[in-house]
Amino acid sequence: MASGKGGTGKTTIAVNLALYLAKSHKVALFDLDVEEPNDNHFLHFELTNFKDVNISRPLINESICTHCGLCAELCEFNALAVLSTQVMVFEELCHGCGLCSIACPEKAIKEKSHRLGIIQKSKNQNNNLLFYEGKLRVGEALATPIIHELKKIAFEENHEYIILDLPPGSACPVIEALSDTNFAILVTEPTPAGEHDLLIAIDLVKQLEIPFGIINNRSDVGDDCIDRLVKKEDYELLLNIPHENEILWLYSNGLPLIGTTTKFDPMFSNLWIRIEEVVK
Amino acid sequence: MKIGIPSNGNDLSQAFATVFGRCSHFVIVDSTDQKNITTYPNEARNAAGGAGIQAAQSLINQQVDVVIAPRMGPNAWNVLQGAGVKIFIGINGTLQENIEAYLAGKLVEMTGAASFGPGMGRGQGRGMGRGGGRGMGRGQG
Amino acid sequence: MTENVKNQITVLSGKGGTGKTTIAAVLAQLSAPISLLADCDVDAPNLHLLMNPTKTSEERFMSGKLAIKDHEKCSNCGECFEVCRFGAINVDFDIKPMSCEGCGACAWICPTNAISMEIQPSGMVYEANTRFGPMVHARLDIGAENSGKLVSEVIQKSHLRANQLNKDLVIVDGSPGIGCPVIAALTNAKLVIIVVEPTSTAIHDMKRTIELVQFFKISPAVIINKATINEEQRANIINFCKKGEIPVLAELPYNLEIYRAMTNRKTVLEYGIKDLENPLSKMWLEIKELLQLERG
Lengths: 280, 141, 296
Hints:
The complex is a heterotrimer.
Chain A lengths: L1 E3 L5 H12 L5 E5 L8 H4 L3 E14 L9 H5 L5 E3 L4 E3 L9 H5 L5 E14 L6 E8 L7 H13 L4 E5 L6 H7 L5 E5 L3 H16 L4 E6 L7 H9 L3 E5 L3 H8 L12 H15 L1
Parallel strand pairs in A: 1-9, 2-7, 2-8, 9-10, 10-11
Antiparallel strand pairs in A: 3-6, 4-5, 6-7
Chain B lengths: L1 E6 L17 E6 L2 E9 L9 H11 L4 E4 L4 H9 L3 E4 L5 H9 L4 E2 L32
Parallel strand pairs in B: 1-4, 4-5
Antiparallel strand pairs in B: 1-2, 2-3, 5-6
Helix pairs in contact in B: 1-2
Chain C lengths: L6 E6 L7 H11 L4 E5 L7 H5 L2 E16 L9 H5 L21 H5 L5 E16 L2 E8 L6 H18 L4 E5 L6 H7 L4 E6 L3 H16 L3 E6 L6 H13 L4 E4 L5 H7 L10 H18 L5
Helix pairs in contact in C: 5-6
C-alpha cells in the first residue's frame, strides 16, 4: 500500500511493486486515485467494465409538489431550489442522503439511481496481476463512494496481496482509502516539502493505527532531512531510490521499471524483503 | 420593482460586492421608492457548497424582479432564470451607482453564467480588470 | 470595501509535483514590490516552507456540519441508525464523526431532538509577511472537508489585504487536480499558468486543466518545467499549445540544483541557478505584457 505527496512517486512504487510481486504471487492492484487514475498509463492493460457506482438522487413529482420549499430549506448541501412553479435539483451537489424524500410532506420526492462513476477491471485472466481502477465521471465531486466500493471488492475477493494506490492529500477520500489496511508505504523525497507532507501522512497513519514504512525517492538530490527524521523517531526506512535519468525517462514515456528492463528488479526485491521484515 | 444586489454592508454607499454567492449582505431596493431598502445577511456565505444556489433562493424568496451581480456561477444563474428574474452585469462602483446605471438602462443583461467577463486575449487592453469573483455557486462540498 | 485587485495569476498543474510552488515563489520574487502571495493548496500547503512567513494574524476556519448527540435526550429508538446512509451511526446509536456527511437526516428524524447539527472548526487561515511581501495561507485539518470554501476564504482575504496595501497583483498557488478547490482558486484569475513536465501523465492532466480553465473563459498559459527530460514529450506539449494558441511562457531545463535550492529554502533565482535565470526573466517580461502591468 502506498501513499504520500503528489509527484513523489506513489504510482511508480505501486505499479512496479505490483509487477514485481506478480512474478511469483497472485497480486491485485487497485488505483484509488479516482479523480486522476494514472496506474494504467504504465500498465497499458485492456480494461473491461466491472460495475457502476451509483448513488440516489431526488426525483420530483411536480404534479403533487406544492412548492412549499421545505426540501430546499433542509438540504445541507444546497442541492435543491424551490421556485413558485418548479423545483430545481442540482445533482452534482447532492450527496444522496435521502432527507428531502423522507421529509417531503406531500411525498412528492422519489429517488432514482445515478451513476457516479465506474469501476474497471483488467481483462488478462492468465496473468498473476489483477488490476482495478475507479473513475469518477468528469464533473462529479464525490470520490469517497467509489473508493469505498473498490475497497469492498478488494477485501471480498480472496487475493494473496492487495496493493492500493492512494489519492494525494489528507482529506476524506484518503482516510476512506487507508482505513483497514495492514501496512502503509509512505513515499517521500528529501526536500522541506517532502518532509512536511510526510509528517502529515505519518500523523494520519498513526491516528488510524496502521504500521508503516518510508520510501525516500530521489534520495540523493535534497539533503539528509528524511534520514535524520527516520533516525530520530526510529521509523522504518524501506528503501532509498537515488535519482536516475533512466527512471525519469521511462516514466515520462509511460513505461514501467519492471518488465521494460531487468535493471530495477533487485531494487524491488530488496523493498519486498524489507516490507516482510517490518510487517513481521 | 425590486432590485437585489450583493453587497458588503447594508447601505447604498457600499461598494458592489465582487462575489455573488459569498457576499456578506444582500441589499434590496424598490425602484419606485429608492428610500425603501431592505438588507439581510447572506446566510449562504457559510455554506460548504452550493452557496450560489442558496443565495439565489433567498433572493427569490424576497421576490426580487432584477438582480445586479458581477458574475455568477451556472447554478445560481439557472435558479434566477428559472424564477424569471432578470440578471444584469454590475459595474465597479457603489450600490447607488449601480442602481442609477441600471435605471438609466446602462447595464448589460447577463446572458449566461460565467460566460463573459475579462476574456484576456494577448494584448487586450487595460481596464478589463475587476471582473470580479465568479459566484462560488458551483462549490462541491 | 472588498474591491478586488486588478490582476490575479493562478498557478496550477493538474498533476502534483511538477513545480507549481517553485514557479509561484519565483513570481513572488520577481513581482515583489507590487504583489501579494496566496497559497491555496490548503490540503498540502508547501509555499510557507520556502517563504518562511512571519505570522501577523490567524483565524479559525469553520466549515461543514457534524451531527452531535445529546445522550440525555436519546430514547434509543434507533430511527437515526435506520435513516443514515453513510454508516455514521453505530449499533449503539453513537455517531462516528469520521463517517458523518453532515446531511442532517438523523437530526430531522430524531423524535426527541437529541441530535443537533453543529458547524465544525476545520482549518486555519493565516496572514503573514515574507521577504517578498505579504502572504495569505491556510491549513485544512486532517480529514476535514470543504477545502473549496477555505480556498475562497484565502482568495477573498488576499484581495482585501492586497487592496489595503496598494498591491496590483495577487499570485495564487493552486492545488493539484481539477476539483472544487481548483475551481475556487480560479476565482478572479486573469491569467492561469499551468506548470507541466514532459511526461505522459503530466500532459494528460494539463489538458484536463486547460479545459477547465477555458470553461471559465480565463486565458491559460503554460510553463514547461524539466523540459529536457524527454524531447518527444516536450514536442507534444509545444504542438498542443500551438494548436490551441496557448502561450508557452518558459521552458526550464531539468537541473538537480533545484532540489538544493529547496533544501536551502531559497527560490531557484535566489540560489543562483544560472540555467534558469534567462528563461525566468523572459517569462516575467511576457507575463507583464500579458497583464499590461504598469509597475513591477
